[in-house]
Design a protein that fits this description.
The chain has a domain at 103-249: MetI-like fold (Orthogonal Bundle), CATH 1.10.3720. It is built from twelve helices and no strands. It has helices at 3-13, 23-40, 42-60, 95-101, 104-130, 133-147, 151-162, 166-193, 196-203, 208-244, 254-261, 270-298. The longest helix has 37 residues, at 208-244. The chain starts with a helix and ends with a helix.
């Protein structure tokens, strides 16, 4: 019993020296090496560049708009010209100004919904893995019941009842992510709990909060980050789909632009194609980053 405290202390200061406890000491260095591989991955840089460009357009665009995004400046579906770079939409509004102004609220809702869903899903997943068996089984049954429900239908019912506001959209999309994230995190947490160093920490009297903070979270950080990147892309797709169906928090939004201008696609395609391209670049960038993280973690598993 006297060697156990030394096993728990050594990883923090000098790294692994005892072959009997290989998992915990190697974890910090494994994730440091994984981060280095992500930084060295060209596809990760391309993905990051795509995401940054779209975020600059979304949050910096309203500062440089040439026309009022909601103002009528010409005839409907006027084609692109030197004055109107991307033409006009179905109501005679400048498409370029709408693209610049229609992304800030959209991306804010996407990011907040992802943080909400992944954060609560992570806590629920850890609770499912650490709870007593009967409690865990009951919680898992409820979680799986929600998981198999048609999420988009539930979201539409809630939004129809409460209305499409930034708060309701963020909450609905965030809560959709919770059961899926909880399932993934629960599996990762169960693998961590089975390790010897967790049993050693419990034997030394480490409390539940300390165990989660110091032993579980550091060892599932890679899984959570990968899950967050997946949920970020899904949030963008779901929010754009809801905006396309008319559940947008504002009149000027990328998904809403696609919905409002689809009837004039053959006349003035930029009114539809411009927001589609911006969303596509964002999703491609998010997926490239996700793949880079997944490859880096897989090579060090």
């Amino acid at each position: 019993m006297s060697e156990r405290p030394m096993d728990l202390v050594l990883p923090v200061a000098t790294g692994p020296t005892e072959p009997s406890v290989p998992t915990e000491p190697s974890t910090p260095r494994r994730y440091r090496s994984a981060r280095a591989r992500v930084v060295a991955d060209r596809r990760a840089w391309v993905g990051a560049a795509c995401v940054v460009v779209v975020m600059v357009i979304a949050f910096g665009g309203p500062l440089v708009t040439t026309f009022d995004p909601g103002g009528f400046v010409g005839p409907p579906f006027q084609r692109a010209s030197p004055e109107f770079v991307l033409g006009l939409d179905a109501l005679g509004r400048d498409v370029f100004s709408q693209v610049l102004a229609g992304g800030a609220l959209f991306l804010t809702e996407v990011v907040l919904a992802t943080i909400l869903g992944v954060g609560l899903g992570t806590l629920l997943g850890i609770a499912l893995a650490a709870a007593p068996r009967r409690v865990s089984e009951a919680m898992l049954t409820v979680n799986d019941t929600i998981l198999v429900m048609p999420q988009i239908v539930v979201a539409l019912l809630v939004l129809t009842r409460l209305g499409a506001t930034p708060v309701t959209l963020t909450l609905v999309i965030g809560f959709v992510h919770i059961p899926q994230t909880a399932r993934v995190v629960m599996a990762a947490t169960q693998r961590v709990i089975a390790q010897d160093y967790v049993a050693a920490a419990l034997g030394l009297g480490v409390g539940r909060i300390g165990l989660v903070v110091h032993e579980i979270l550091p060892n599932i950080a890679g899984v959570v980050s990968l899950e967050a990147s997946i949920r970020l892309a899904i949030s963008a797709v779901v929010l754009a789909s809801l905006s396309y169906l008319g559940f947008a928090a504002s009149g000027v939004e990328w998904g809403r632009m696609i919905h409002d201008n689809q009837g004039g696609l053959a006349i003035q395609p930029w009114a539809v194609m411009a927001p589609v391209i911006v969303l596509g670049v964002f999703l491609i960038g998010a997926n490239l980053l996700r793949d880079a993280i997944a490859r880096a973690l897989a090579s060090h598993t």
